[in-house]
Amino acid sequence: MIEAKKLLINRIGNNVIKCVEEGKDQYKRILAECFVNNQSLSKYLVREGYAFAYRKYSTKYIPDEDY
């Protein structure tokens, strides 16, 4: 967990984070994807092995997990 945090800190730096709302989950929490310099932070974490494609809810990150 600490390694993923450090990875994100380095990736974000002093850049502005932009998050795009994608809906809400069953508990009415906002689901969003966040970007730095138009690059998805979720995709980055999956590709680096610090997150996984949660296939039960989405197939969006499967190619990144396979990478």
Question: What is the fold's blueprint, element by element?
Answer:
Layout: H1 2-12, E1 17-24, E2 30-36, E3 39-40, H2 41-47, H3 62-66
Antiparallel strand pairs: 1-2, 2-3
Outline the structure in words.
With 67 residues, the chain is of the alpha+beta class. It has helices at residues 2-12, 41-47, 62-66; strands at 17-24, 30-36, 39-40. It is globular, with a radius of gyration of 13 Å. The two termini are 21 Å apart.
Shape: globular
Return the structural class: alpha+beta
> How many helices?
3
Alpha carbon gyration radius: 13 Å
Characterize the largest beta sheet: strand count, sense, and whether it forms a barrel.
3 strands, antiparallel
The helicity comes to 25-40%
- The helix-strand sequence is HEEEHH
Detail the poorly predicted runs.
none
User: Got a strand count?
Assistant: 3
Indicate the mean pLDDT: 92
